[in-house]
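Journal club prep — side note

Before the paper discussion, L.F. wants everyone to see what a predicted structure for a comparable chain looks like in C-alpha cell form. Sequence:
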Amino acid sequence: MHKLLARQLRKAAEGSPDGTVDLARLVAMVDLAYDESDRERRLKDRALDVMQAEVDQLSQRVAEQAEARFNLLMDNVGEAVIVIGARGHIEGFNREAEKIFGYVAAEVMGRNISCLMPSDLAAVHDAFLAGSKKDSNTRVLGQGGRELLGARKGGEIFPVEIAIGEVSTGSHRQFIGVVRDITLRKQAEIELRESESRFRDLAGSASDWFWESDADHRLTFVSDRIGSVLGVKPVAILGHTWFEIGLDDHPERAAAHWNDLRSHASFRDLVFTVGPPDGKDRKVIRLSAIPMFSHDGAFLGYRGVGADITREAAAVERAIQAREQLRDAIDSITDAIAVYDSSEKLVICNQAYADTLDRSHEFLFPGISFEQVLRNGHQRRFFDIGNQDFDEWLVGRINRFRNADGRSFIVKLSGDRWVQSRECPTSGGGVVAVRTDITDLKRREEDLDFLRRRYELILDSAGEGIVGLDHCGRVTFANRMAGEILGRACAEMIGQCFHCLVHPDPLRCEGPCPASASPVVEAYLSGIPGQVSGEVVRDSDGQTIPVDYFVAPIIDKDQPSGAVLVFRDATLRLQFERGQEELQRELSYLVAERTRELQREIDTRARTETALRASRERLKAITDSLFEGVLVLDREGYVSFANPSAKQLLECGDHGTDIEGYPLDILMRVRAPAGDLAFKDAPFHRVIRDNAVFRDDDAAFVTASGKVFSVAYACSPLGEDEDKRSVIVSFRDIEALKKAQRESVQASRLASVGQLAAGIAHEINTPIQYVGDNLRFINDALGKLMLAMSAGRELAAEAVSHPDMEDAVARFEAAFRSAKVPFLLTEVPAAVAESLDGVAQIARIVLSMKEFSHPGTRNKTMADMNRALDSTLTVSRNVWKHAAEVERDFDLSLPPILCYAGELNQVFLNLIVNAAHAVESSGKSLPGRITISTSRHGDDVVISIADSGSGVPEAIRERIFDPFFTTKEVGKGTGQGLAICRDVVMTKHGGSLELADNDGGAAVFIVRLPINGNDEPGVEE
C-alpha cells in the first residue's frame, strides 16, 4: 500500500467513534493530500532544474580550468606527452613532443598516431589500442615503460621509451602516451658494453690478472688470465681464499698477511708458490690489492691484481747461483782478483786477493772503498813506497785506478815482494783489479840484469868486434871493439845496415841486402853459422882492414831472424883468440837462452802439475764418497780409475786393492739375452766410438766370480779426440730395489686376492652344493638299480631250474617297476653330466686363482693376453657380477707377447675393478656393461676396457695417474692403482696406458703392449 494512502486511512479511522473508515472523508483527505504532493513535486522539479543549470555551469568552468591546467602541464613537462583518441588519432601534442619528433602540433593534430612510428609497428600499435581494457581507471600499459622505435619528421628512426595510460569519460576514451627519447642512453649503453669488452680484452691479453674477494676474503671474481697461469678454470677457485690456494704453505708470510687483512690494509708484492713442491707445474705468484668499502664505510673485500713471476723468481735464483759460481770460479784462480763498482767500493774478491792485502781478514770486506783499502794497507806497512810522501802516492794511485786502461804496472810491496797489477774498466763504470805475484820473476829479472851488465862488461872488454844483426842485416848492438875497428861510435851504428857500414863501395840500403851483396850477408841469410873472410873500410881514416868474420845466425821458427857477427884483424893469433872468444860468447848466449826457456818450462810444468794434483785429489775425494761405483775405461777396455764402491760391487777383494790397469773383461761383463757381453760388444765401446751418452736403468753385471746382480748404469765419453777418448761408467746395485718392487707388487696382488677371497668362496660353494646333491641322488639310484638287478638274477636262476616262470617274472616286473628303471636311465646320465660341469667350473676357478696369484718372475715370458683376461674376469667375478654384465670381444688370432704376466694380471684386475666401481657409482640403472676387447695393431697388442659409467671429469683427467690421487671415499681407495698400472705398462713393458671416452661419455682405458717386449735382458721363452 502506498504510504500516503496508509497515512490517510489512519487519519480517517481516528475521526470515527467506532473506528470504522468514512469513505467520503477518506476521499476528500486523499484528494487534498495529492494536491499538496503535486505542488511540492513541481516546486522540487523547478529547484532541480535550477540546480542542474548551476551544476552544468560549474562543470563547464571546472573542465575549462582542468583543460587549461592540463595544457600548461603538457607544455612544461620535461617529456613528450601525446593524447590519442579511441580511434588512434592524435588529440594532444606538447612542446617536448614537437622537439623530439620534429613536427609542429598543428601538423599532427587529427592524424593517426602511426605517422610517428615505423611502418612495421603501426599495425602492432592499433592492435594494442583495440585490446586495452575499457574502464575508467588510468593504468600504465607495459610496466616500467616499453622500448620501441619512433620516426621523426625527416624519416629518421630512433629508440624511445613509452608508457601509455587510458582515461575514460563516459563513452569517450582517450590514451595518454608519455614518450622519452633514449638515443643518448642507448649510445651510452653501447659505449658501456664496448668499454666492458675492451676491459675484458685487456684483462685477457694482460700478463697479470684481476681479482676480487668478499669480506670473508673468498674470491668472487678472477679474470681468465689466471687459467693459463695456474692450469685451472677461474670458476674452479671461486669461493676459495689465497690461503687455501697456496699461501698456507708459507706460515710466516701467511701470519703477516693475516695482520694486513684484519686491519683492512692495502698490501703489495705478496709472493708465494702454488702447486706441488717438486712438480713441473709449480708457480710463483705475486699479489697486490687495496680494500673496498661501501658508502657507509662497511668493509666489502679486496680488489687487486696478480702476476706470474715464476720466471723472475727462477732468474733471481739463477743470479744467486751465478754469483756463487762466480765466487767459486775466481777463488779457484791463483791470481788475485777483485771487482769494484762505479763508486769505487769493493763488490767481490777471491781468497788470493784477500790474502795479499789482509791475511788476518780484519778490514777487507764488500762495500769498503778502494781508498780505504790503500790506507789500511799502508797502516799495516803493506806497500813499500820508499821515501815518497804517502798522500802524494795515494793521489797518484787513486788517479791510476780511476783511469784504469787495462795496462800492466809493477807495485813493490814490503818484504822485497813485487806484484804485477792490471786494472780494467767495466761497462758499468767499475774496475776489475788483477794482481799477480811476480816476486820470483822480479828476482830473476834482477839476476838477468846483473848478467846483462856483466856480459856488457865482458863484451866491451873483448878484443874482437861483436855486432848483432836483425833479419834485415841492421845493427842491433855493437861492442866497444867493433866501434874501434870500424872507426865509428857504437851508438851511431845501431839501426844501420852493417853491409853498408863496412863495404868499400856501399849500396843504397832501403831494405834487406841481397844474398849476393857479400859473403857475410849470404852467410847469415842462409842460417848456417860459419867463418867468412872479408874487408872493412874504417870510417876514421878510410883504411881497409882485412878481417875474418864469424857469423852465428839466430833462428826463430825455423827461419833466420838475425845473426851475431864477430870480427877481428886477420892475424893467426887474433883469429885463434877471436874464435875462442866467439865460441865462448856463443856458448854463453845459448846457455842463457836455454836457461830462460828451461825456467819457463819448469814454471809452467809446476803450475800444471799442481793444478792437476789438486783436481785429482778433489775428484778422488768426491768419487770415494759416492755410493755408486765409478769406472774410467780407455778405448781398449782397460781400467784407468775405480772408486772404492766400484771395487766393492765388483768383488775385487779389499777396498785398497788396486785394479787400475786390468782389462774390464776379467773383472765383469754385461749380461744380455744373447750371452755375456765383453767390452768390445758392450755399450761402453759404442759410447767411445759414437761419442754419445748411454743409460740403462735395468741391467745386470756378471762379476769374475760368476755373481749376477742388477744395476742401473750410465756411461759418457771423456775427451774429444777419438784416439785418446775414454769412457766413464757410473753404476749402482738395484737388487734390493727390485726385490722391494717385486715384494710390493706381490703384496698388492695378494691383498687384492684376499679381498676377493670371500666372493670366490661363494662362487665355489654353489657348484659344490649341487655336485653333492647330484652325487647323493646317484648313490640312491644305484641302490635301487642293484635291487632290480638282483631280482633279475633270481629270475634268471629260477628260469633255469623251473620251467614255470610266471611267479619269477611277476616278481621281476614288480621290482623293475618299483625301482623306476626307465626314469633312472633318463635322469642318472643328466645328473652325472651336471656334476661333471660343476667339477669343471670348480677346476676353472681354482686354476684362475693359481694363475692370478702366481708370483711374478724376474724375467719376461710369453703370455696369452686373452687367457690372462679370462683368468682375471673369473677371479674378480664377485666384484662385477652384481654391477655389470661383461661383454668379451677377443681377437682369437692374437699372438702371445713377451711380458711379466703376473704384473699385467694386476693391471687388468685394477682396471676391471675400477670399471665395476664406476658403473656402481654412476647412478644409472643396474646392471651396467663392461666391454673388454683385444686386437692387434701392427707390432702392438691393444686391450680396451670400457664401462658404462659417468666417465672421468675433465678437471681431473691429468691427475688420475698421479700417485695417491683417488676419487673414492676415505678408506676405499689408496690412489696407487692407476699409478702402478701406468708404471708396469710404460716403464717395464715400453707400452702405453691412455684414457679416452666412448660414445656414451663413459671411460675407456686403452693398454698398448709391444709383442716383442722392449728389448730388456733376461728373456725366458
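L.F.'s comment for the group: Residues 808 and 898 are 73 Å apart (CA to CA). Keep this in mind when we get to the figures.
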